[in-house]
Amino acid sequence: MSIELAAREIAVKNIEVLKDIYQGKSHEHSGTFSIFSALLSRFRKFPELQNCLKLYVLSDDWKRDGAFVAIFQTLEAESYVFFDTLDHSLNETLKNCIALLDFSTTIKMYDIRRIFLPIVYDVINSQNLSAIERADLICYMLPKMEALNLKITLPTNFTIDSLSQDNVSQVNSAWSHKSEGSEKYISHVIKNNTSIGLFDEMNRLVAWCLRHDSGALGVLQVDSNHLRKGYGSIVAKAISKKIAEEDDCDINATIVSENVKSVEMFKKTGFKEEWQTWLLVIKNQGKS
């Protein structure tokens, strides 16, 4: 079966329309606006990535209700799914669409709002599926103008620059969410999204931060030999400022709620807590 039994595919260019629909809506929809902003930025740089996105609407009145399901597949074995609606009378339709997704690949669901968690778990429990990973996240926001005004001071002879494919192995090895296939994901993100690395006087990578496909900052890490030197704050500021210069959107970072150190660092940078969200990685139990 196909999601097209419950939804209608529309042209990818309509993400601009959906972005405008969600702009300025209540804070619980800010993640949706951020994702569309990030996708538009990415498509301007890499137009070929538009071929990786499938966009479905749940009603003929989608320009009012904003109800959609988006599937972004850049890796053969994984799909990234996000969805939202301004009209919750469509929640059952949304559930039907989710149930019709192709779970033959691993699916990562981004920015799941609390109201949608029961819907997703109903689908998981009614099919032979398993949530192999769940992250309870808090989203922190930094206004674009504040990001543009961030002051960045580097240690003597240190530099900041975008990451390259040469850095993939180091970044993946240090990532707390490292898993089978995660190196391909890190490679994809570094190639297609904004990233920042802090390099020492020998051009060794000592700290870094990436921008996920969802538009949120993540994978922020400091090399174990350089902890408690303020390097995490440097890369957080640098990537925030870079995104603000490139995109017309505020900066957001999703942080695991128990990660007190990261929360405090982002707060010191100027980020403020906005909303709670969830990430689920869903796999067919019949697949190895």
UniProtKB/TrEMBL annotation:
State the superkingdom: Eukaryota
A Gene Ontology MF term for this entry?
acyltransferase activity, transferring groups other than amino-acyl groups
* Domain GCN5-related N-acetyltransferase Rv2170-like positions: 196-277
SUPFAM superfamilies xrefs = Acyl-CoA N-acyltransferases (Nat) (SSF55729)
Q: Which InterPro entries match?
A: Acyl-CoA_N-acyltransferase (IPR053225), Acyl_CoA_acyltransferase (IPR016181), GCN5-like_dom (IPR013653)
Q: By what name is this protein known? A: CLUMA_CG001876, isoform A
Query: What species was this sequence derived from?
Result: Clunio marinus
